[in-house]
Design goal:
By secondary structure, the protein is an alpha/beta fold. The protein folds into two domains: 315 residues, Adenylosuccinate Synthetase, subunit A, domain 3 (Adenylosuccinate Synthetase, Chain A, domain 3), CATH 3.90.170; 96 residues, Orthogonal Bundle (Adenylosuccinate Synthetase, subunit A, domain 2). 32% of the residues lie in helices and 20% in strands. Strand 16 and strand 17 form a beta hairpin. The longest helix is centred in the middle third of the chain and has 21 residues. The chain starts with a strand and ends with a strand. Bound molecules: guanosine-5'-diphosphate, 6-O-phosphoryl inosine monophosphate and magnesium ion. Guanosine-5'-diphosphate binds next to helix 1 and strand 3.
């Protein structure tokens, strides 16, 4: 049995969907452990493009189990819509398993996300407005409702009867004209519960049994390390533990059962949302990366901010995730540039800074220091993928070797296109 946790090492959208789908061929279970439908994971299969927000990428492989763990926040309507969409594309969704302990995103969470973003002004993270932050807030404040509540109508009604009037008072006090109705929510969610019941199980037990049977588990992280609630660019990140340790708390499998941690790293950096971004390129190279890399939010469609690769960020991610290897993606997007830069460290008030600061307000004053690499030409990436690592341009190999040396972690997977086949396994 091998279990692998996949995490994003930057600010999300590193290509986790593509890499998860690739690794899924050798896995029996593919498990989401945190986040919710703020995620947007793209998988390209032939001429079909799948954009998954809540369903684990394993759903596309018929013989695999796709698990939504307890650490995920689930909007049941979004989940049902996504399953319907998959079925319309002839994907069998009967292999989904949904944790009975996962928290539910409620209509008032979405309204509160919208409102808080407005009220926070300069502290707003530019959220996806899917209710993620308010749902995790309620979970921690012990106001939350879980999947299991849908199957105990009396207790569910009681909980709603306590929570909803409190939420209504908060909205009113903040000058909002919304009023949520206990019965409306109850009726709507009980119906969702009926539709989802066939998927619901105790996923910690399911995964422990899988381990007993020597089966392989793949944990599919969402977002990225620098959006982590503890280790990310607080308060501009998301509300869950996106780092590898989240795959234990978010599934009920202890750290002893995680064998490998793969950090998905885009060959440059992108960010959708607000907050400081030291290597951001607000020029024609940034435009080039956005256009060529198709850097537009999978969930919100927003243009992503683009910049050079930042080794301060990547060394941080190597440490907090205990990475065992890196999958480097989108190297093809850098093709055609004369020079490629990588930030090695920052300068602040004349001092060299090698570690990402806790006080991220300072980050905007940090001057990135760059190492320059020679670029590589556009090539037939399909052909190179067939031939393997040796056929990659020497300049690209230099770039790869530098990242390995700086992080001390091997780059075992190289992605040079969005398709499954455009992948080199070293
Ligand atoms: P995720 O959130 O980490 O799964 O990443 P997204 O799916 O949001 O964004 C990554 C985008 O890059 C998607 O459109 C992928 O199809 C695409 N992609 C993934 N790997 C590569 C690659 O190596 N090269 C290119 N050109 N595109 C890639
Ligand atoms: P994937 O899994 C990129 C960002 C939002 C915002 C902040 C908080 O596709 O990589 P939230 O809605 O989570 O409260 O927003 O986090 N964000 C992401 N950025 N990729 C994602 O997911 C993201 N999920 C959230 O833009 O800045
Ligand atoms: Mg994404």
């Amino acid at each position: 049995m091998t279990s692998i946790t996949i995490v994003g090492t930057q600010w999300g959208d590193e290509g986790k969907g593509k890499v998860t789908d690739y690794y899924a061929k050798d896995s029996d279970y593919i498990v989401r452990f945190q986040g919710g439908n703020n995620a947007g994971h793209t998988i390209v299969l032939g001429d079909k493009k799948f954009k998954l927000h809540l369903t684990p990428s394993g759903i596309l492989r018929k013989d695999k189990k796709a698990v939504i763990g307890n650490g995920v926040v689930v909007d049941p309507k979004v989940l049902l819509d996504e399953l319907k969409l998959l079925e319309e594309k002839a994907i069998d969704t009967s292999n989904l398993i949904l944790s009975d302990r996962a928290h539910l995103i409620m209509p008032y969470h979405i309204a509160m996300d919208e409102l808080e973003e407005k009220l926070k002004g300069g502290l707003s993270a530019g959220t996806t407005k899917k209710g993620i932050g308010p749902c995790y807030s309620d979970k921690v404040a012990r106001f939350g409702l879980r999947v299991v509540d849908l199957y105990n109508p009396e207790a569910f009604k009681n909980k709603l009867s306590t929570t909803v009037p409190i939420k209504n008072k908060v909205f009113k006090a903040l000058g909002e004209e919304v009023e949520f109705d206990v019965d409306d929510i109850f009726n709507e969610y009980i119906e969702y519960g009926k539709e989802l019941e066939k998927y619901v199980d105790d996923t910690s037990v399911v995964l422990h049994e899988a381990i007993q049977k020597d089966e392989n588990i793949l944990f599919e992280g969402a977002q990225g390390t620098h959006l982590d609630i503890d280790h990310g660019v607080y308060p501009y990140g998301t509300s869950s533990n996106t780092i590898s340790a989240g795959s234990s708390t978010g599934t009920g499998l202890g750290p002893r059962f995680i064998d490998e941690v793969v950090g998905i790293t885009k060959a440059y950096t992108s960010r959708v949302g607000t907050g400081p971004f030291p290597t951001e390129l607000e020029d024609e190279i940034g435009e080039h990366l956005r256009d060529k890399g198709n850097e537009f939010g999978t969930t919100t469609g927003r243009p992503r901010r683009c910049g050079w690769l930042d080794m301060v960020m990547l060394r941080f991610s190597t440490r907090v995730n205990s990475l065992s290897s890196i999958a480097l993606t989108k190297l093809d997007v850098l093709a055609g540039l004369d020079e490629i830069k990588v930030c090695t460290h920052y300068i602040y008030k004349g001092e060299e800074i090698h570690h990402f600061p806790a006080d991220i307000e300072k980050l905007s004053e940090f001057e990135p220091v760059y190492k320059t690499f020679k670029g590589w030409d556009e090539m037939d990436w399909d052909e190179i993928s067939q031939k393997g690592y040796d056929e990659l341009p020497d300049e690209m190999k230099e770039y790869i070797k530098y990242i390995e040396k700086e992080t001390g972690v091997p780059i075992k997977l190289i992605s040079i296109g969005p398709k499954r086949s455009q992948t080199i396994n070293r």
